[in-house]
Amino acid sequence: MFPASGLIQASFSVTMTSVEQSRKDHFFSLVLSALEDIAVAGFPGSEIEAAINTVVISLRTLPAESSTWGVGMLQGLAGPWVYGRDIFQEFSFTSPLNDLRDRLAAGEDVFGDLIREYLLQNNHRVDCTLLPSPQLSAKLQGFKTELIKEKIDSLTPESAQKLAAETIAFNEFQADSDSPAAIASIPMLAVSDLDQIIDEIPTEVMSYRSGTLLEFEQPTAGILYVNVALHTDAIDEEELALLPLLSIALANTGTSDMSAADLNVLMGQVTGGISVDADVRRNSSEHASGPGKPSPIPLLSLSGKCERHKAVNLTQIMSSLLVSPGINRSDSQAIMTQLIDAFETQYTNAWTADAYAPAVSMSRAMIDPYAWANDQIGGLPWLWQLQHWQGRLKTPTGWPDLRDALNQLLSRVLSSARPV
Predict the structure, then answer these.
(1) Is the dihedral of CA 160, 164, 166, 167 positive or negative?
(2) Which DSSP category does 325 fall into?
(3) Confidence (pTM)
(4) Percent helix / strand / coil, the chain, rounded to 5
(5) Phi and psi (nearest 5°) for 416?
(6) Other CB atoms within 10 A of residue 244 CB
């Protein structure tokens, strides 16, 4: 669900993919009934606070995380300006959010009234169903061909001759080189215009337990960024292919004492989000020490951000994801089954859309250890891993086998990891 405010009338959309056409009416009814239930029951206070905190952090981190933030901000102001709104209000978000908190604390049914007025009682509604068609490309090509034929048939001999002459002249114009004067008018950067000195960011290196802690100051509007990289040198090739599945499980199954839904609410209240990813880096020390291709370093990475005064909350959640993950929860099987199905579809579509990419990726993997490791966690071997477990999870022993494999891999990662 998402609102769109680029028009003078804001719109609200609900989208669902991969729905059977025969069930579309059920989907429309489900959306309306869910909105009716929410309008009556309201949102839990914890979820509202999580949403507000998420919005605050996302807005405060835009300047630091986006190199095109200024351009995007100006483009975003164009809509309110065209429709006569106060563009300076677009810069302020603290005051409106504080007003919202005050209204909610006073017991006002803010969201219920909005849902009833603008969604449930609003007759300006469109139900749009997009269906795949194998014949679509041929139909479009036929339409274009017919359109061109009709246009040509409508031309008089004089118009046809004029159009042919204009086409020849246009092709000659495009083929002709620009004049030296025109080329000289194009703004260009010379090497001498570039700063030859790389800015060095002061970094404090500290030892923390068995790992290394790197700390450096950056202008981030009071937002603290934490990145944890666990070196997983001790895992073997078969386990490397499981590393992405482990990252998916850690990020989506909650913790041993908190469901994924409850954990998401907690993360929304105190952080700007936490991600868990499988990654591979080159061993730069080997590269600097001599010729040859450096060996890859597999990593299990955790990244998160929060307001500076909530740093303890952020690190506690990140620690819980590793030390007491939700892999063994009773609802984890259903979550992982859905996620594996979704990722399998995503990667199948991505690889089939580009016929050359798999061959290029596997060719590089044959000559470069780093490319090989990346291929294991993001190429065809990773897709084959998904398809393997997709089939296994349909058997009685599939989930216990995958759960045990992920637990053993996590244990090996934590026992051998050198965190940075």
Answers:
(1) positive
(2) B
(3) 0.73
(4) 60, 10, 30
(5) -110, -5
(6) 20
Contacts (Cβ under 8 Å, ≥6 apart) of 332: 249, 253, 326, 403
Distance CA 92, CA 213 (A): 36
Which pLDDT belongs to residue 293? 57
Backbone dihedral region for residue 397 (phi beyond 0: left; psi -120 to 50: alpha; all else: beta): alpha
Dihedral over alpha carbons 91, 95, 99, 101 (to 10 degrees):
100
**Residue labelled with tokens 């059920």:** 26
Q: Residue 156 carries which side chain, given as an amino acid letter?
A: T
Q: In whole angstroms, what is the distance from residue 332 CA to residue 328 CA?
A: 7
Kindly state the average pLDDT of the residues 144-151. 90
Q: Which of 324, 184, 319 is nearest to 253 (CA)?
A: 324
CB atoms within 10 A of CB 267: 22
Going from the C-alpha of 73 to that of each of 3, 68, 90, 185, 349, the distances in angstroms are 18, 9, 9, 30, 34
Which range is most confident: 33-37, 200-204, 231-235?
33-37
